[in-house]
Amino acid sequence: MTARRCLGYKPQMTQIWKERLAKALEEKGLNMLTASRMAGKSDTYVRDLLKRDKEPTIENFINLAKVVGKPVSYLIGETDELKSIIPVMGLIGAGAEVMPDFEQVPPEGLDQIEVPFALPDEMIALEVRGSSMLPVYRDGTAIIVYRHQRKPLASFYGEDAAVRTSDGRRFLKTIMRGVNDTVNLFSWNAAPIEGVHLEWIGEIFATIPRSSRR
């Protein structure tokens, strides 16, 4: 269903969208002023929508849905199904490095993935390219990881993760304990990288095969 078809609510529309928009703002940690500015509107735009008998245009409603990270169909009450839109912030491949630096990618990502369940806001996706981690991670698979490292290094020993080394390289590897506070990074189909320090570990939350991506 297209967004425009979803928004065929004029001239009458259930007021459930106000409740869901307010809840989405709270979940996102956004106040009405910040949300209005993120939507490119006047400082009182969202407040006026929620507090007065006003409805957004189709285009503005789509924009607001992007600001709060919810599907339009959920906000307007057409479905109770919660979904998440996860930005793809880089690729894994071409020598098993993650590229580009996701800090340098636009907030909306290089692409977006819709998953049929709610996820925390701090999730990002990285797309696998190449064969260094076959057969577990195939070309085109997306891994959903936490943007910020949540656990200490030792808890990742023996686990697969997206990592950034101290010299700025990014990999999808299995992390193993090294010597002198270093780690060794292993792949299924590539030589190990030994004796490196890590600046960041992206804990893998889920994997989405290419065939399941929307």
Automatic annotation (TrEMBL):
InterPro entries: Cro/C1-type_HTH (IPR001387), Lambda_DNA-bd_dom_sf (IPR010982), LexA-like (IPR039418), LexA/Signal_pep-like_sf (IPR036286), Peptidase_S24_S26A/B/C (IPR015927). PROSITE patterns: HTH_CROC1. Residues 21-75 form the HTH cro/C1-type domain. Pfam families: HTH_3, Peptidase_S24. This is Helix-turn-helix domain-containing protein.
